[in-house]
Each structure stands twice: as structure tokens, then as C-alpha cells.
Design brief:
heterodimer, A: 2 strands, B: two-stranded antiparallel ribbon, two-stranded antiparallel sheet, 19 helices, globular, disordered C terminus
């Protein structure tokens, strides 16, 4: 390993050392402000050194990690998302007296895990990153132990993540047994040479796909999602919905050539995409809890994201990243509103509690409304541009069935987002409970996210050009899987 | 730049109106200032449209503006105006003024926000009439929806939430299919030429297999037919129109329905001339079905606003028939019908609003005998009901007559059936009059007559109706070149009209081309 390799890895190292620093400092100096500041500083440092890493990319650091524009673009997204979540957590945790430094430590570890995932081109790093991420999430989801729902969510996640990890491990073992390599590129190449893959490999790939399905909450592996989202503290729900899924999908993009190398891979993913879109959207239609609604909506969004994955090629890879940018902004924004309004021990997540919010509290009501419009993909918001981009990728590759299914599902989804909107803007009842004031840190971040939603919804050109750059130099993205 | 100004005037005006509505120093005058600002913005837009018409159109008849917007996807900011767009933009600004004026007393809560939302709808509609890049068009097409949703959901009547969501979903889902068709067309074009563009002009030359063209055309037609609305897709209309506040109904009936017909005229037919020609008989039949079914439904209503709403289905059936008949007479008729229906039905909704404001009911069986105490109200109701019937001398007569004449040249049987609609419209319009302004005053209504503000507004609309009916030549001349060009794309048109079309002063000559 040379100095240049270390330089390329520096963003990940910053995050890891940041977690250690938070742990050590937190042991001696229990200042919430100090710890949160240290967290932000580590994130800022990671962001700063990633500039240098971009200059060195693409670079294969050990067989395990590939630091290229693709990995770094996702890393930047994770770090910025984590910064926003740090601000929300700072307000959210103000009401929880003990152990707050643990939260930030776990948050940084989770981001480091996601970063490793985005850079992994090897089963070993895939597994390492996934474990780092999952273990941090167990702690984060159960962080508000006093709420039974939180504990329940944590246990559920622990059991199901454990099961999915074992599926994944067995799948990896079977594939390794046959081919004797764990590198994605080498696997894809051997699979291509072997013609009809042996049954063991098909079984292995199937198990790996199940592992992905659990983690991405694709239908029919989605049942944990609503409970975990509902139970977890709102900032953590945002992390589960955005970061952990984006990291997994980034791995899936790199792993796709292997998966598609088996002839049944693409049709299987296509079926998964279709039932995930329909399942997520249909189940979301009648939810009475905003967090559960967002959980089902995120399931559906993962379904949409399988469309550009199947479309493949540079446009597919670019549109997935762009979609995630949009999805991060809006999902973190929506959970941010819940987090900002939940200052007490119980969260404000029942839709009825939001009745008339647009009139009672025009600003925060408007922010939530805007996020809903963006999730629904209505023009003037970034959500529209993101949907447009992935549908364009589908059209480019001639995936007409997926295009029409995606389009019909977007229309169906509009119903439940509009339902939230109509609750926000209906007449408030007589005795509405008073919701707490939004504290400054959350307020600033929410305003910034709203501005981004509209700005990128009107002039997405620069970011789309940026997205097109990320697929260059990504070794494992072949042009068109079909 | 004039085009961008046309598009941005309502947005800027709306933002100012909103700011005025929330501006503390204005104290009690906030609502009034907000209203005047909104009215002024629509006035400025109308002025700009007239200026564009007077100075720009004679010099070549076409103005356009292009800029890069999303280079990664080949989307450009491409606006253009010709006679067809110009007339519809002018209608937008005029009805915008009407919508602001008729809300003067009705809207008392959140006045600033109301005007912002209203003007955003107008900006979206204006953009739809100007856009020439398909994605820009789609973008603006959807931009209309969200503010319209809020207009119904916040300021509407009793069942506003239901109506707002129904309106949104009914128009959103088919337009998403249109988006799929737009993407499909653009990428088929990309495959054939390696140029990724959404510019409508460039996409016209796309080589398409007949099956692909049929599917894509179906996507476009569906998106537009819901807005028109064509018959099986009309069920959102009555709820949305009835529950919307008066200003919202005016904009819905007067403008949003026109965007559907405009979309067919501008995109659905010229982009797929062969597929559209094959489909034209079905579309014409749908139009005729709309004429008759809308009239029948209208007759069955007991709510003033619902009755007017259903009559719109009938009137827009003539537009659909005219648009798909494809020859210039029919297209001119459809164009005229769009303008006349926009103005006439807008006025009827204003009157419905005035009646509701005075009697707090729209039920026809409770109304009656309003003429006794409110003769001006009664007079205007009579006038605009007769305009809806298509009395000669008023705009809708010319529109409906020319649509039928044009259709007769292509599909005589359909035109003959459609002509029955003339009779049916008399039946429901007379029933409307009989049960509201005439008839026994069973409830003892003593209502204040129209205020000067309302008289000026309705008088202006009446003047436009008579102008359209008595001297339509300027309209035909303005729209003529654009319609001839659009008609040229329609391979279905075996008939052409020679010379300028001036039905009252000049013999209309038709010649039959050689049909292979």
C-alpha cells in the first residue's frame, strides 16, 4: 500500500477515526454540543479530503476497495446526508439526557460502513461494510429504549438483518466454491466464460439476491420496513431509508454484471421491480402513520430504482445516483420535519396530528408539503427530474414494460402523497395539540433542503452533468446488460 | 423575450399579490391591494398579448425563443407563438382578469395566497400554449395541476377534498402515460438519428413503425382526452367544476379544457399524422358521443353549476369533432368554439357564483323568479344561456356551425347526429332559465342586483361574445396560417379550403383533392 493509496482512502479513514474520537472524547467530556461539533468536524474533514481523492480516482486500493468517482460521489452524498441528520439529531436528542455521544459514534460508524460498501468490489469488503453498517443500525434503531416501539424495531431489524446476512454469506460461499474468486469483475468474467452456469452458482446468486432483497426491502422481503421505520427515532429512520439503501444499491450496481451474467438474473430482477413498485404503492395507500407511509413509499422507490439498474449502461448508473440525490434530499427532509416536531418522548407521526398544519404552522407545513410533492414526482421539484431521468434511462434501453409500470405506479403513488397534502391543508379542529417550536439547527437544514428541492427541480442541468461523469471509470458497468 | 415575459408576468404578479396579502404595513387594505395587483398582472399579460399580436404577428407571423435547459437529456427551453397560441394566451389573460374580479367578494380568507395560486395556474396554462419542446410542455402541463388542486382543496365548496383529489388523479395518471409516450418518441428518434432532442419540430420527422406510432399516439391522445374531456373520461369534470370556487371554475372550464384540445391540435395529430388519420373516425365519434351525452347529463342536473359543467362536455364535443375532422373549416370552427366556450361558460360560472353568493344555494328547484328583484342578473343569465345554445350572432354559433360543416365534409353521418346537439342544448338551457330567473318565486327571493363591478365584467364578456359572433374575420385571419399548417399535417383531410375563410362575406369554395 502506497501513500497514494492511503490518500485515496483518507475520506473513509477520517470517518473511522472520527467515530473513535467521538468515543474517546465522549468518555471524558460529556458535552452534547462538543460531541455534535466533533461529529460535524469529522464529516467536514471527510468531505475536504475527498477532493484530493477525486483527483486520484480511479484507483484500486488492495483487491478489496476501488476508489473511483462512483464510490466517492456516493460517499459525498452519505457525508452530506449524515451532516443533515446530525443537525436533526442534535435537536431530537436534546430531550434525551443520557448517552447521547454513543449516538454520534454509531452514526459515524454507519457512514463509514456505507462508504466501504460504495467502494467495494469484493465479497470480503462487501461483507465488512455491511456488518459495520448493520451493527451500527441495531444500536441506533433501539436508541430510544424507553419507547417500546423502538426496542421492538431494533429486535426485528437485528433478527431479520441476521437472517439476511446468513443468506448472503451462504450465497457468497457457494459462488466462491465454484469459481475460487471473490472479486466481482473476475466473477463476471468467469460466469461469462462458463456458458450455462452450474446450479450451485445459480443457487448462490439466488441467495445473494435474497440478501439484497432483505436489505433493500424489496417485496416480498419488505415486511420489516414499516415496523422498523415507525420504531426508530426519526433521524435514524431517515438513515435507514436513505443511506443504508443507497449503499446497498451502489454495491448492487457493481455486482449487477455478475447477477445478469446468469441468464435468469435480469428477468428475476424485472419481476422483483414490478412487484416491489406495486406492493409498496398499494400498501402505502391507506396508512395512518406518516412514518409507516414513508416506509412503504421508500419500498416503492427502491422498485423504481431497479428500473435504471436493469436498463444499465452509463445512463442507468448516472440516473441511479441522481435519483438518490433527490431521494436523500426529500426523504431526509420529510423525516426531518417529523424529527423537528417531536421534541417530547413520543414522536409526532400520526397523520391526524398533522391536520391543518399548513395553516397552523405555515412554514413547516409547507416544507412537508413540498417534500411530499417531490416524492410524488411533481414538476418544479427535484423528484420530477429524478423520475424523468430514470424513465429516460428505461426508454433509452427500450424497457417499455417497466417504463409503463413505473409511470402507472407514479400515478398511483400520487394519491397517498396528496392525502398527506390534503390533511396538511384541511381546516384544523378546535382542540389541536400544540406542537413544539422548531429549533434553529433543524430549521436551517429544512430551509436548505427545501431550497435544494425547488432549485434542482428547475435547473437540474449541472447536477445531471455531474451524474454523467460518475459512470466513467467505473470498471464494472458494462454498457447495457441486455 | 416577449414570450418569457408572457410566461413570467402571472408568476411575478402572483408573488407580488401574495406578498401584498401578507405585508404588515398595509394593515386592513391587504386583501384589496392583493386583488388589484393580481388584476393588474392579468391586465399586463393581456396587454403584452395584444402588443405581440399587433406588432409581431404580421411580420412573419411567428416568434420563438430557444435556450438550453437540461443538456444532459437534450431538453431545451423552446417557446414559440403563432396565431393559434396568441389567441389562446389572450383568452388566458382575459379569463384571468375575470377570475380575479369574480372572486372579489367570494374569497375572504387567505386572499394573498389565493391570488398566488390562481396566477400560478394561469402561468402554467400560458406556458402550455407557448411551449414547443415536448418535455417543457409536459413540465408546464403538470405545473398547472398542483395550484389547481390547492385552489379546489382550500377555497372550494363542501366536498372539496374529494373533488380536488379526483381532479388531480384523473388528469395526472393519463398525463404520465403521455410522458411515457414522449420519452418513447424521443428515444426512438434517438435510435434512428443519434440526436437526443425533445423539440416537437425535430420529432415530427421521426421514422416510426405503424404500431409504435399507434401506441405513442394513444398515449398522447389519452393525456389530452381527459382534459378535453372526451366521454368515457369525463367524470372528474363535474365534481371539480362544482366544488371549485367561482374563479377556479372559470379557469377550469375556460382554460384547462382548452389545453387538452390545443394539445391534440399542436402535438397529437402533427406528430403522428398517419396514426391520427386512422384514429380520426373514432375520435370524431367520441366527440359526437360527448355532444349528446353531455347534453343529456346536463338536462338531468338540479344544481346550477353542475348543469353548466356538464354542458361543457357537450360543447367540447364539438371541439373534438372539429379537431379530428382535420380540414380547415372544421379547425377554424374548433378554434372559434374554444374561444366562445371559454368566454361564455366562464360567464355562466360567474353568474352561478353570483347567485350562490346571494341565495346561498345552487339548487335549481329552490331558485326561481330571480328576475323580479334582480333584472340585470336575469338579463345576463338569459344572454349567456342563449350564447351557450348557439344563437346566431354569438360566437358559439359560428364555432359549432363550422365544426359541424367541416365534419360533414368528412363524416356526414356523424355530423348529422352531432347536429342534434343543437336541439338538446336548447332544452337544457331553457330549463336552466326557467328554473332560475323565470318561473314562480316559490322561496320569496329578494336579492340585491348585480354590482357595477359585476356588470362591467359581464358586459365585457358579452361584448367579446358578440364580437366573435358578428365579426369573426380577425380571429380567422389570426389563426388561419397556423391552422393551415396543422391541417397540412393531417393526411386525413381530403378537402382544402381556398382563400381566406370569411363565412359571412365570402363564398366558401371547397375542392376535392385526388384521393388515392
Amino acid at each position: 500500500m502506497t501513500a497514494r493509496d492511503l490518500l485515496a482512502l483518507l475520506p473513509l479513514i477520517c470517518l473511522a477515526y472520527g467515530a473513535v474520537a467521538v468515543m474517546v472524547v465522549g468518555a471524558f467530556w460529556r458535552s452534547h454540543a462538543g460531541i455534535a461539533g466533533l461529529t460535524l468536524a469529522s464529516l467536514a474533514a471527510a468531505l475536504l479530503v475527498s477532493g484530493q481523492a477525486f483527483a486520484l480516482a480511479p484507483r484500486q486500493v488492495t483487491p478489496l476497495l476501488r476508489v473511483d468517482v462512483f464510490a466517492l460521489s456516493y460517499l459525498v452524498l452519505f457525508v452530506l446526508g449524515a451532516a443533515a441528520l446530525t443537525a436533526f439529531s442534535w435537536d431530537y436528542l436534546a430531550g434525551i439526557p443520557q448517552g447521547r455521544e454513543r449516538f454520534y459514534c454509531l452514526l459515524l460508524l454507519a457512514v463509514a460502513g456505507m462508504g466501504v460498501l460504495a467502494a467495494s468490489t469484493h465479497f470480503a469488503s462487501f461483507f465488512l461494510g455491511l456488518e459495520t453498517l448493520s451493527v451500527s443500525l441495531y444500536g441506533l434503531i433501539g436508541f430510544t429504549l424507553r419507547r417500546p416501539a423502538s426496542l421492538e424495531g431494533s429486535l426485528k431489524y437485528l433478527v431479520l438483518a441476521g437472517v439476511s446476512l446468513s443468506f448472503l454469506l451462504l450465497g457468497m460461499a457457494l459462488v466462491y466454491f465454484q469459481f475460487g474468486t471473490m472479486e466481482f469483475a473476475a466473477l463476471a468474467e468467469r460466469l461469462g466464460r462458463s456458458g450455462d452456469p452450474p446450479y450451485l452458482v445459480l443457487l448462490g446468486l439466488g441467495l445473494i439476491l435474497v440478501g439484497f432483497g432483505f436489505k433493500l426491502a424489496l417485496v416480498p422481503f419488505h415486511t420489516w420496513a414499516p415496523d422498523v421505520y415507525q420504531g426508530a427515532p426519526a433521524p435514524v429512520s431517515a438513515l435507514v431509508a436513505t443511506g443504508s439503501k443507497a449503499a446497498l444499491l451502489a454495491v448492487l450496481v457493481r455486482f449487477a454484471p455478475v447477477l445478469m451474467g446468469a441468464h435468469s438474473g435480469a428477468p428475476l430482477l424485472e419481476v422483483l421491480a414490478i412487484i416491489t413498485m406495486f406492493g409498496g404503492n398499494l400498501l402505502a395507500l391507506f396508512q395512518g402513520n406518516l412514518k409507516r407511509l414513508l416506509a412503504y413509499s421508500s419500498i416503492a422507490h427502491m422498485g423504481y430504482l431497479l428500473i435504471p439498474l436493469l436498463a444499465g449502461g452509463a445512463a442507468g448508473v448516472a440516473s441511479i445516483w441522481f435519483y438518490f440525490v433527490s431521494y436523500f434530499i426529500t426523504t431526509i427532509g420529510a423525516f426531518g420535519v417529523i424529527s423537528a416536531l417531536s421534541a417530547g418522548p413520543e414522536e409526532v407521526a400520526e397523520l391526524e396530528q398533522y391536520r391543518g398544519l399548513g395553516f397552523r404552522r405555515p412554514w413547516i407545513g409547507a416544507v412537508l408539503g413540498l417534500m411530499m410533492l417531490s416524492l410524488a414526482g411533481i414538476p418544479l421539484t427535484v423528484g420530477f427530474m429524478a423520475k424523468l431521468y430514470i424513465f429516460a434511462a428505461a426508454a433509452r434501453s427500450g424497457l417499455w414494460l417497466l417504463l409503463v409500470v413505473g409511470v402507472v405506479n407514479s400515478g398511483m403513488a400520487a394519491y397517498y402523497y396528496l392525502r398527506v397534502l390534503s390533511i396538511l391543508y384541511s381546516q384544523p379542529g378546535e382542540a389541536e395539540e400544540r406542537l413544539p417550536r422548531v429549533r434553529p439547527a433543524s430549521g436551517v437544514v429544512l430551509v436548505a433542503l427545501s431550497v435544494l428541492v425547488v432549485l434542482l427541480g428547475i435547473v437540474p442541468g449541472a447536477l445531471m452533468s455531474r451524474a454523467q461523469a460518475i459512470s466513467r471509470g467505473t470498471a464494472s458497468t458494462t454498457d447495457g446488460h441486455r | 423575450m416577449i414570450l418569457t415575459w408572457l410566461l413570467m408576468t402571472p408568476v411575478i404578479g402572483g408573488a407580488l399579490a401574495w406578498a401584498a396579502g401578507a405585508c404588515p404595513p398595509l394593515a386592513g387594505r391587504r386583501p384589496a391591494v392583493s386583488r388589484w395587483v393580481a388584476l393588474a398582472a392579468c391586465g399586463v399579460q393581456l396587454g403584452l398579448a395584444c402588443w405581440a399580436g399587433a406588432y409581431l404577428l404580421p411580420n412573419g407571423g411567428f416568434v420563438e425563443q430557444r435556450a438550453r435547459w437540461i443538456p444532459a437529456l437534450g431538453v431545451s427551453y423552446h417557446l414559440a407563438i403563432d396565431g393559434l397560441s396568441l389567441l389562446l394566451v389572450a383568452l388566458t389573460a382575459l379569463l384571468g382578469m375575470v377570475a380575479v374580479t369574480c372572486s372579489w367578494r367570494e374569497i375572504q380568507h387567505r386572499v394573498g395566497a389565493f391570488h398566488f395560486v390562481l396566477l400560478c395556474v394561469l402561468a402554467g396554462v400560458t406556458g402550455v400554449f407557448l411551449a414547443r419542446d415536448l418535455l417543457l410542455f409536459y413540465f408546464l402541463w403538470e405545473v398547472m395541476l398542483v395550484p389547481m388542486y390547492f385552489l379546489i382543496a382550500i377555497w372550494g365548496h363542501e366536498r372539496r377534498n374529494y373533488a380536488a383529489i379526483k381532479f388531480f388523479l384523473f388528469t395526472f395518471i393519463p398525463s404520465l402515460l403521455m410522458l411515457a409516450a414522449i420519452l418513447g418518441l424521443a428515444f426512438l428518434h434517438y435510435r434512428a438519428t443519434s440526436v437526443l432532442t425533445f423539440d416537437a419540430e425535430a420529432l415530427k420527422a421521426t421514422p416510426l413503425s405503424p404500431i409504435a406510432a399507434a401506441w405513442l399516439m394513444a398515449g398522447f391522445f389519452l393525456g389530452f382526452a381527459v382534459k378535453v374531456p372526451a366521454v368515457p373520461l369525463h367524470t372528474w369534470l363535474a365534481d371539480a367544476h362544482t366544488e371549485a370556487p367561482t374563479g377556479g371554475s372559470v379557469v377550469l372550464a375556460g382554460l384547462l379544457l382548452k389545453t387538452g384540445a390545443y394539445g391534440m391540435l399542436r402535438f397529437a395529430i402533427p406528430l403522428f399524422p398517419d396514426a391520427a388519420a386512422a384514429f380520426a373516425p373514432i375520435a370524431c365519434a367520441l366527440g359526437v358521443a360527448g355532444i349528446l351525452y353531455g347534453a343529456a347529463l346536463s338536462f338531468a342536473q338540479i344544481d346550477f353549476k353542475r348543469m353548466v359543467a356538464y354542458s361543457s362536455i357537450s360543447h367540447m364535443g364539438f371541439v373534438l369533432l372539429g379537431v379530428y375532422s382535420g380540414n380547415e373549416i372544421a379547425l377554424q370552427g374548433a378554434m372559434m368554439q374554444m374561444l366562445a366556450h371559454g368566454v361564455g361558460t366562464g360567464a355562466l360560472f360567474v353568474l352561478a357564483g353570483s347567485i350562490q353568493e346571494r341565495c346561498h344555494t345552487r339548487q335549481l328547484d329552490r331558485l326561481g323568479g330571480l328576475w323580479e328583484t334582480a333584472p340585470r342578473l336575469g338579463g345576463f343569465t338569459l344572454l349567456f344561456a342563449l350564447a351557450a345554445v348557439g344563437l346566431p350572432g354569438m360566437g358559439s354559433f359560428i364555432g359549432e356551425f363550422l365544426s359541424l360543416l367541416g365534419a360533414y365534409l368528412v363524416h356526414p353521418a356523424l355530423a348529422a347526429i352531432g347536429a342534434v346537439g343543437f336541439v338538446l342544448s336548447v332544452v337544457y338551457a331553457l330549463r336552466l332559465l326557467q328554473q332560475s330567473i323565470y318561473g314562480p318565486n316559490s322561496e320569496g327571493w329578494r336579492v340585491p342586483d348585480l354590482t357595477p363591478r359585476e356588470v362591467v365584467m359581464l358586459g365585457g364578456l358579452a361584448a367579446v361574445i358578440f364580437w366573435l359572433g358578428l365579426y369573426p374575420a380577425p380571429i380567422f385571419q389570426a389563426a388561419g396560417p397556423a391552422l393551415r399548417e396543422l391541417g397540412a399535417h393531417s393526411a386525413s383531410a381530403p378537402l382544402r379550403v381556398n382563400g381566406t375563410l370569411l363565412p359571412w362575406t365570402q363564398q366558401v369554395q371547397t375542392t376535392r383533392e385526388d384521393v388515392p
